[in-house]
Amino acid sequence: MRTRFDMELDNLNSDMIAMGALCENAISEAMKSLFTADKTAAQHTIEEDREIDRKEKDIEALCLRLLLQQQPVARDLRVISSALKMITDMERIGDQAADIAELIRHMHLTPVSRQNKHLSKMADAAKKMVTESIDAFVKKDAALATKVLADDDLVDSLFLKLRHDIIEMIAADPGCGEEAVDVLMIAKYLERIGDHATNIAEWVLFSITGTHEL
User: Fold this and answer.
1) Model confidence pLDDT, tens digit, residues 128-184
2) I want to staple 56 with a disulfide (CB 3.0 to 4.6 A). Which of 30, 77, 91, 136 is the partner?
């Protein structure tokens, strides 16, 4: 019975990795659309979001099956319950990436916005947080999860710098207000992705230590 349970836990890890990869791809495609004006990439992001939604349902069904049929011990229960919490944040990461894509499909950005170094760094940092939070869960790596929590400060700092850039852009050219608002919204979506990755990392720590910081 335990052997079968361990196999199911391995399946859970594989599914979490797969869902995390979908989230990473969605962010990458959204930002590709932003920086290259590739509308096809924006559509790919929206399709990835639909796949993320389906993966969430699959993992939820697996977790519930493990809880109801296998009667897990305390540590396993923490892992399964943490996974259930994590997939909610992962699904929302997909939503945020899709929101960026939808915005890009209906907006016009000048090269000045597309080449903003803080926006690019924000995207890279947020995606890295998502990757490392899932890796921390699979590897049961508390140190990596803690690193993700610290990395959220970088995303927040980049958001503040980008907001300053936008204020300067409007001051220099009051006619770019609509573009400035769109860029700020994209940055806010990236900041939220970082927040969701932070939530995931907190649940990873709970799965390992049994303690969750509220």
Assistant:
1) 999 999 999 999 999 999 999 999 999 999 999 999 988 988 898 888 888 888 889
2) 91
CA distance 100 to 26: 10
CA distance 160 to 115: 17
Cα 104 from Cα 95, distance rounded (Å): 14
Those residues with Cβ within 8 angstroms of residue 181's Cβ, 6 or more apart along the chain or in another chain: none
* Cα dist from 176 to 39, 121, 144, 172, 205, whole Å: 22, 23, 41, 9, 44
CA gap 125, 162 in Å, rounded: 14
Q: Which residues of 47-64 are buried (b: 16+ CB within 10 A; e: fewer)?
A: ebbeebeebbeebeebbe
- For 178, what's the count of Cα atoms within 13 Å in the CB-facing half-sphere? 8
Helix axis angle for 74-105 and 117-139, nearest 10°, is 160
Q: The whole model's pTM is what? A: 0.91
Structure token pair of residue 67: 């809880």
Handedness of CA 127, 128, 129, 135 (dihedral sign): positive
Task: Write down how long the chain is.
Answer: 214
Which helix (H) or strand (E) covers residue 131, if one does?
helix 117-139
Share of the chain above pLDDT 70, in %: 94
